[in-house]
Amino acid sequence: MSDERKPDASGATGARAYWLDHPRNVDRLVYALYGVCAVLLVGDALVEKHGPFALEHYLGFYGIFGFVACVGLVLAARALRTVLKRPEDYYDR
Predict the structure, then answer these.
(1) DSSP string of 8-71, one letter each residue
(2) Phi, psi values for residue 53, rounded to 5°
(3) Planar angle of CA 87, 90, 92, nearest 5 degrees
(4) Is 34 within 8 Å of 25 (Cβ atoms)?
């Protein structure tokens, strides 16, 4: 007997279906994320800022800064991996 599950007419394999398995729900989630980002950007335009640096007063500065910092962390982690990486059989020797 095979343990493989056969797909039904909808393409599901008979396993439990989760709400993110449906492309329509994923699209809704992405559009909701776009909406939240738009609302936060509008809110950023409406709030008066009192930062010590002039650069902080630009629209969307903190979002752009956060994105650049995240990309910088990923690139730094990739570079650090070359220093810290051990051979696959490091503990088996």
Answers:
(1) -TTS--SSPPPGGGSHHHHHHHHHHHHHHHHHHHHHHHHSPP--SSGGGGSTTHHHHHHHHHHH
(2) -110, 145
(3) 135
(4) no
Report the 3 state secondary structure along 68-87.
Answer: HHHHHHHHHHHHHHHHHCCC
pLDDT at position 1: 47
Q: Is 47 left (phi over 0), alpha (psi -120 to 50) or beta?
A: beta
Residue 69, both tokens: 């910092």
Q: What is the pTM of this model?
A: 0.62
SS3 88: coil
Distant-in-sequence, close-in-space partners of 8: CB < 8 Å, separation ≥ 6: 14
CA contacts within 13 A on the Cβ side of 6:
4
Higher pLDDT, 22 or 10: 22
